[in-house]
Amino acid sequence: MTEQSKTPRGPSANQLLIDLGPTILFVITYNVLLHVPPMKDNAVYIATTLFIAATLLVMGYSFWKTRRIPPVLIVTGVLITIFGGLTIALHDENFVKLRPTIGNFFYAGAITVSVLVRQNVWKLFFGHIFTLPDRIWNLLALRWAAFFFCMGVVAEVLRRGLSTSDWVTWHFPLLYIPMLVFAVLQTPLILKHDSSDAPASEAPPA
Description:
Elements: H1 3-6, H2 13-33, H3 43-66, H4 71-90, H5 94-116, H6 121-126, H7 134-161, H8 164-193
């Protein structure tokens, strides 16, 4: 494998649409409806309905395109459906605002537990791309667990401190941009220890 081929590639346009499309639709819909007087009071509930529908749609598209749904997308879809559904059913916007908090804490806990039981989810998800020592897989997983925990705290601060209008507009960049930056910061560690391009005679013993 060449240096070029083992370098992590940026997400494709289709993957970005799958990952970000429903959230962007939620933000745009809410801000548009907020300026339509007859719909202003129900803007968050209409936007949440479209948020759920769009998430289920991209899950279906992912399955149709690849015959699988990424585990992260499944978790996201379940959380959005549950908390979005509660928002609509109980007419309480706090539930949809609580979803990022619960989601980040869930990821932090799930990753930590996977390391403790020696079933590192980071290695399970990315082991077909990179060949890393177990200690590096564990280090990466624990770094991400710590990151998700911190972002769960940030999400809760935003939920408690911002109005619904400000939360809808700002929670997306304030939670997603740090994730992109953190992912990029892990690249040097991955490339330093990746041995997927090493000759068979030099590959570490099983």
